[in-house]
Specification:
Helix content is 28%, strand content 28%. With 548 residues, the chain is α/β, with parallel strands linked by helices. Strands 1, 2, 8, 9, 10, 11, 17 and 18 form an 8-stranded mixed sheet that branches. Helix 1 runs parallel beside helix 4, helix 2 crosses helix 3 and helix 8 packs antiparallel against helix 9. The longest helix has 27 residues. The chain is globular. It starts with 22 loop residues before the first strand and ends with a helix.
């Protein structure tokens, strides 16, 4: 490729290869975005891990490119968010076309007061490189290239893992084995486990091209355009003047034939015009799938990312959902390994993330049905909706060119403490128990944004001087510590005091004076009250960690 040269990471022999099988608390299979994010998150919680990858470089081609606001907030907490934003292309606006006419325009983040845009586009190889470099800063991570897992034998307290290397095979013992090894998951196949769901009878061509263009930094989606009739096309801008174009091909298309430049160039010329100057960087053909494993936990073997669930790329729900998997799993695994929570806490990972996977699959399936109608009647309905959308807002809600990724609201999680104060807002977007925490501009010692002050640990968000210094100290020294971040009010010993610069923290959290919001280490709301009560906080934390 003209714009990127894949790094080559060296294979190194390890002491594990020269003695009796060593035991490691956590072994992660796969050094893609999800495996690396999990390793970094565990390291930030003080947990060491071994990461095994059969390759020696990052991904080839752009692959996953759209990172949603919630994923960016997770990556901020891991220490790589700013690099991704600086390198990538941020966007909030999309346009949907029917043939050669604009059907409508949408804005995914119309309000101000958020640190991150709705999405940032960045080729997966850049993201992986940044994560590899971040992992290299953390001594707790042992990243092993050209280490291919060829055998897994699960047992009650972990798994025996066989690994092949250029120097021959070796074995190790894993207290927990986390499979982040992608859609074709070797670990899943080694254990004889299957994913269930639907494979859609359609194919799409991805073409990455290097081109200087004045197309705006937006998501453009065409239904039945004149340059590709009876099919759909998607356009995204990426870093380094690389543009991602997805062409619908139909089920009868030959995947290998369609990747040849002589097949791709006429499609690009028809779309961009005869005078456009561009170079093809990378191309691939994919088939829609919406599938997941029945359970993401199998004893001490846990699955995350594409190894656990798979959706079509429209909606950008794959990698974004995978980051939410690691965000959910890391703090729970850290507490279990520290002996501060029972092993059944990992069952809540399975419950919460299979719920989220079902939500993603449902939205992805609906998008696929709309984009690729399977009957003349379906196509007529779709085109009628698109025509109506030009003039009528109600019809725009029916258009589905990919319902774009949003974080799961875990409203029914067993880890939540239900509201007892009836006057709390429960409107869409409210910070109900189970909701991911909303960001807002603040002034405080850890930066100018609320989410920079919460996460990694349990946090009590207190509005005003609602918690006394003695209670702050007691929470900090509890078996599972909880920090107090105070919004406004005078200084309180031990609490981090921030100022609500624009009043958005109070508005988004329904935070009148005295309000208390308990946040989990993954920045999801666990409980909220109108007044502080130490016993209720202790009970909510016990419930959120399965210590009740």
């Amino acid at each position: 490729m003209k714009t990127y040269t894949n790094p080559v990471y060296p294979y190194r022999r390890h002491a594990d290869q020269d003695g009796a099988p060593a035991r490691h608390d956590v072994v992660i299979v796969g050094a893609g975005p999800i495996g690396l994010a999990l390793a970094i998150d565990l390291a930030l919680h003080g947990v060491g891990c071994v990461v095994l990858d059969e390759d020696e470089t990052v991904s080839v081609g752009s692959r996953a490119i759209c990172y949603a606001k919630r994923a960016l907030e997770i990556l901020d907490r891991l220490g790589v968010g700013q690099r991704i934003v600086d390198k990538g292309v941020g966007w909030n606006v999309g346009r949907v076309f029917l043939r050669d006419a604009l059907a409508y325009r949408f804005d995914l983040l119309p309000e101000t007061g958020h640190r991150r845009p709705a999405f940032v586009n960045l080729q997966q190889y850049w993201l992986e490189q940044f994560l590899v470099e971040r992992a290299g800063e953390l001594p707790a991570i042992d990243l092993r290239w050209r280490n291919k897992v060829t055998g897994v034998v699960p047992h009650a307290d972990g798994a025996t893992v066989t690994v092949d290397t250029p120097d021959g095979p070796y074995t190790m013992q894993a207290g927990w084995l986390i499979a982040c090894d992608g859609a074709r998951s070797p670990v899943r196949h080694l254990l004889g486990l299957e994913s269930e769901g639907q494979v859609f009878r359609d194919r799409f061509l991805i073409a990455d091209i290097h081109m200087q263009s004045d197309f705006p930094t937006e998501r453009w989606f065409w239904f039945d355009p004149p340059f590709h009739p009876d099919q759909s096309v998607l356009l995204h801008r990426q870093a380094d003047d690389v543009w991602r174009i997805d062409f619908q091909l139909g089920w009868d298309a030959d995947p290998e034939d369609e990747k040849r430049p002589e097949r791709i160039l006429p499609r690009l010329r028809a779309m961009l015009g005869p005078d456009a100057k561009f170079e093809i960087e990378w191309a691939s053909v994919y088939t829609f799938q919406c599938r997941r494993m029945k359970s993401f936990r199998h004893g001490r073997v846990v699955f995350a990312g594409d190894s656990a669930h798979l959706v079509s790329p429209f909606g950008a729900r794959g990698a974004n959902s995978g980051f939410q998997d690691t965000d959910n799993l890391a703090w729970k695994l850290a507490l279990v390994l520290a002996g501060r929570a029972p092993e059944r806490l990992i069952d809540s990972y399975d419950a919460e993330r299979t719920f989220a996977a079902d939500e993603n699959i449902r939205n992805s399936t609906r998008a696929t049905d709309f984009i690729t109608p399977k009957s003349a009647a379906s196509r007529t309905f779709r085109n009628a909706v698109l025509e109506l959308a030009k003039e009528h807002p109600f019809a725009r809600r029916l258009v589905n060119s990919g319902r774009l990724s949003v974080p799961a609201v875990l409203a029914d999680s067993a880890l939540n403490t239900p509201d007892t104060d009836a006057d709390f807002a429960r409107t869409p977007g409210a910070m109900i128990p189970g909701a991911p925490a909303a960001d807002a501009p603040v002034a405080g010692p850890l930066g100018d944004w609320l989410l920079g002050h919460v996460g990694n640990d349990f946090t009590l968000l207190a509005f005003g001087n609602a918690v006394g210094g003695a209670d702050v100290a007691a929470l900090a020294h509890a078996p599972i510590p909880c920090r107090v971040v105070q919004v406004g009010g005078g200084a309180t010993a031990g609490a981090t005091v921030i100022e609500d610069r624009e009043g958005l923290v109070a508005r988004r959290y329904d935070g009148r004076f005295g309000t208390i919001v308990l946040l989990r280490p993954d920045q999801h709301v666990a409980a909220r009250w109108r007044a502080f009560d130490a016993a209720r906080v202790r009970a909510a934390m016990a419930r959120a960690t399965c210590n009740d």
